[in-house]
Amino acid sequence: MTPMHATRRWVMLALGVFAQSSSAVIVHGTPFLLPALTDRGMPLATAGLLVAMPTVGLVCTLIAWGYAVDRIGERAVLVAGPLVMFAAGAAAAFVTDYVLLGVLLFLAGLGAGSTNGASGRVIVGWFPPDQRGLAMGIRQSAQPLGVGIAALTIPTIAAAHGFSTAILVPAVMAGLAAVGCGIGIIDPPRPAVSADSRPANPYRGDRTLWRIHGVSVLLVIPQATVWTFALLWLHRDVGLSLAVAGVLVTGTQLLGAAGRIGAGFWSDRVGSRLRPLRTVAVAAAISMCALAVASWLHWWWAAIPILVAASVITVADNGLAFTAVAEIAGPYWSGRGLGIQNTGQNLASAAIAPLFGALITASGFPATYLVAAVIATAAIPLVPLPRHIKPAP
């Protein structure tokens, strides 16, 4: 780790959190524009396709952005990506053609992919080993924070001022993020590499990273199950009003962000990312199994607290896995490693709504929660043996 004043490290972390929050607003906030789009007379199927375009752009470019991070550094990527989001989002506010709007939202998602794999090397390079887990946990809280910002701002602005004004929310955030990262981010130095040698490929001859990627894909399934269907389950099966269910779901998002930070702090204290990761996998399997049983028995007094607990537990692995990937991949491969990590998780998450939606229709929520528990159980033996944290070169 390279020495740096502590305040500067945390400022750079805050800039990374803000940049990824702006990405989360554009990617996960566009579904909140569905009412505004349909009020324009747009068919629901068309509107649904449009709001999915940022996610498509994100998934298509995660590994490419990771490669760019490894080649040109995180500062350049954290400026270029948000600038693309800003330009595409601002342009989307002034178009009326649906095809062009879809292209611009795709480009906004393309830019959003830049923030997902960035900050790994900044955290490993500037933070000491006993603070990296906490730092990455804070970094990973950006997604639920962005979703919360989107939920609080976009529907209200869209209802009051229309689609064009609402889409400017993430665009302005992205523009501010680009300026802030351009001024405040400093790429940590990397070990010199001679002209006739290349940095070792951490994927060659070692399955550790692939196993971590596999664990993360498996554990994102119970996470996405809870986040995707909690509102529907609370309203349709439990009988809560949409307003009360919405407040409860928002609260679980905030608790999930705190859970990611807490898991990172825990990993710093025990000096391992993988041992806590295995514990989280066990807890995720237990909590989803308990939710399945309580839901099947209609024990709502128990099911609701279990849902809250599962919402926190099932997201706690994210920061642990991301920190482990960044540390193991090293300064020349962390961007690609995190790009692969993000791509696998996003593809798995995208499959949850249609596949588990069909399972809920056929078999109900208890069976679906049980399937998620079984998948989480499969992740437990896949977690690599713990390794002691070593400072990055």
| Overall spatial form | globular
- Radius of gyration from the alpha-carbon trace, in angstroms: 21 Å
Average predicted confidence as pLDDT: 88
Number of helices: 17
Describe the structure.
By secondary structure, this protein is mainly alpha-helical. It folds into two domains: 6-184, MFS general substrate transporter like domains (Growth Hormone, Chain: A); 207-382, MFS general substrate transporter like domains (Growth Hormone, Chain: A, Up-down Bundle). Helix content is 80%, strand content 0%. The chain has 17 helices and no strands. α12 (242-270) packs parallel to α15. The chain is globular, with a radius of gyration of 21 Å. GO terms for molecular function: transmembrane transporter activity. The chain crosses the membrane at residues 47-69, 76-95, 101-124, 145-161, 167-187, 208-234, 240-258, 279-297, 368-385. This is Sugar phosphate permease. InterPro entries: MFS, MFS-Transporter, MFS_dom, MFS_trans_sf. It comes from Nocardia mexicana.
